[in-house]
């Protein structure tokens, strides 16, 4: 049965925000989510057992325990949840998965922040844009997060989650950042963290290590980035579609 299993029922969250980190263009969402989990030493709070997720057992360095591939971490003091994923979600499973996660977030009264890269291979500055569902548009205005300057479409599980929020008339925010289409992009993830997530969630995020470890991150994520290119239909990305497409 599809559900999200909570492991720490004693942990109390009153009005949390959730940051989603699926692999996608530039791996920006995954890099940002992983950075939050590591920086705050967040607690493994729940595991997603939603229909369509790969039956994969995940293990970590210096640990004997096994975990599911899509997990939710929590920081009680910061009222923060982070969805961390080690696998893509197939297009066939995206709708059921989005319904599973969205229903749980609604029960928790959590505001999700969904992350996606716009694959434009930027040379210098990377622009950040925001989209919203429900009444969350006000938060983008309050924090001066720009709206997209052209029409586009968000694919993969991130797009499915945003569409499900629209369908259920629930509040959610989507942050879109210009990123590399071929390689992990820690610089783009840094912008997501500093100009988007930290501002919206009212938290302090230290990102110096992202810059210092940029090459290490690129090497560590290179294999995953290659897998995502090979399964491009399963990756989250935001792409311009043009007025007549």
Radius of gyration: 17 Å
What is the H/E string?
EEHEEEHEEHEHEHHHE
The gross shape turns out to be globular
Helical run tally: 7
The percentage of residues in β strands lies in 15-25%
Report helical residue fraction: 25-40%
What's the N-to-C terminus distance?
39 Å
Compute the average pLDDT. 88
Strand element count: 10
Biggest sheet, strands in spatial order? 1-3-4-5-2-6-9-7
Low-confidence stretches: none
Largest sheet: 8 strands, mixed
Instruction: Give the helix/strand class.
Output: alpha/beta
Features:
245 residues; eight-stranded mixed beta sheet; two-stranded antiparallel sheet
Describe the structure.
There is one protein chain. The chain is an alpha/beta fold and 245 residues long. The chain contains seven helices and ten strands. It has helices at 28-39, 91-108, 137-142, 156-167, 186-201, 208-212, 214-230; strands at 3-6, 17-21, 43-49, 70-75, 80-85, 111-119, 128-133, 152-154, 172-179, 238-240. The strands form two sheets. The protein has an eight-stranded mixed sheet with strand order 1-3-4-5-2-6-9-7, sandwiched between helices. Strand 4 and strand 5 form a beta hairpin. Helix 1 (28-39) packs across helix 5 (186-201) and helix 2 crosses helix 4. The longest helix is centred in the middle third of the chain and has 18 residues, at 91-108. The radius of gyration is 17 Å and the shape is globular. It starts with a strand and ends in a 5-residue tail after the last strand.
């Amino acid at each position: 049965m599809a559900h999200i299993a909570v492991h720490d029922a004693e942990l109390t969250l009153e009005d949390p925000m959730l940051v989603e980190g699926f692999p996608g263009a530039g791996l920006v969402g995954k890099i940002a989510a992983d950075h939050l989990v590591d920086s705050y030493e967040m607690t493994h709070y729940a595991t997603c057992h939603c229909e369509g997720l790969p039956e994969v057992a995940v293990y970590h360095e210096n640990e004997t325990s096994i975990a599911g591939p899509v997990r939710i971490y929590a920081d009680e003091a910061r009222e923060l949840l982070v969805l961390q994923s080690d696998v893509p979600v197939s297009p066939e499973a995206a709708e059921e998965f989005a319904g599973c996660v969205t229903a749980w977030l609604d029960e928790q009264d959590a505001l999700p922040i969904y992350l996606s890269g716009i694959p434009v291979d930027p040379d210098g500055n990377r622009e950040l844009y925001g989209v919203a569902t429900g009444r969350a548009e006000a938060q983008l205005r309050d924090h001066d997060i720009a709206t997209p300057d052209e029409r586009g479409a968000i694919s993969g599980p991130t797009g499915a989650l945003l569409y499900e929020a629209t369908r259920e008339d629930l509040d959610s925010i989507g942050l879109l950042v210009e990123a590399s289409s071929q390689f992990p992009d820690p610089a783009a993830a840094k912008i997501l963290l500093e100009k988007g997530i930290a501002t919206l969630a009212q938290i302090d995020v230290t990102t110096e290590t992202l810059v210092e470890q940029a090459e290490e991150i690129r090497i560590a994520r290179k294999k995953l980035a290659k897998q995502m290119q090979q399964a491009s239909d399963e990756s989250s990305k935001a792409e311009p579609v043009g007025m007549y497409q």
